[in-house]
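PROTEIN ENTRY
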Amino acid sequence: MEEDVQFPNLKLGVIDEQHRFGVRQRSTLRQKSSLLDLLVMTATPIPRTLAMALYGDLDVSTLDEMPPGKTTAETSFSSESAALEAVKAAVAQGRQAYIVYPIIEESSRLDLQSAKAEFKRLSETVLSGLRVALIHGAMPGKTKTTVMADFAAGKSDVLVATPVIEVGIDVANATVMVIQNADRFGLASLHQLRGRIGRGALASHCFLVAEPKTPEARARIETLVGSSDGFRIGEEDLKIRGPGELLGTAQHGELTLRVADVIKDAGLLGLARADAEALLDRDARLLSGEHAALRERLIALYQRKWTWIDLA
């Protein structure tokens, strides 16, 4: 949002797909009005947001039911050959499929498959004879719109893509999602990509193709295979990556608590929050003599970060 855009009477702001925005972007919206109520929405809470919910700084509403007519996609850790066979089988039954790669172009610095190179390879080999299309974020907007419209209309069988399709795509006939180099995606992105299938009543399957090289990468894969609950996936992401800075801009990373653990000690967090609210009800700005030391300590710790306080 442009900083010079002002609203004379802004009362409600809604941020959809909240995990795709940074702390500063959300803070810019909040600063548009002192009377703003803010609703943030996401299928998978990022670690910082979930930690703030645990701290009590967010009121949380959880939708734990699938929308009417939508199915849960089965998810498996798979080889590339098995995943591509499933793509061909789905197309043979009149269905469609996505194959997602983490980057657009090949890079000498990254040992990753690219959408452009794999689109060419697959079109000429394993998927020859099928109608294969390509979409990525570097394409002009009109081209992307045309490619997606053709896929939605059934004019292509397989869409090779980058994460540009992560949100806003609704094709009920697409029943297979293959995510290549899945260990290089974050949990929120993986869950969102999986959400592109199962948009109707047809049985759907998500294949995670990866060679995880770290315990954290393997944990992300195992989490997605084991759950379709976005809130639980968010909790696992919090455990894996840490909550980040509640008064800073980091959206993940270790929280510098010397003793407590935001997951294991969630019950204590609730008690601490109640005590903090009771204290602020008595002395909102901590100006009384008995609270002077606490005020000074808070300023010393967070003075440079006050401008980034937000509720999401």
Notes: The CA atoms of residues 16 and 41 lie 5 Å apart.
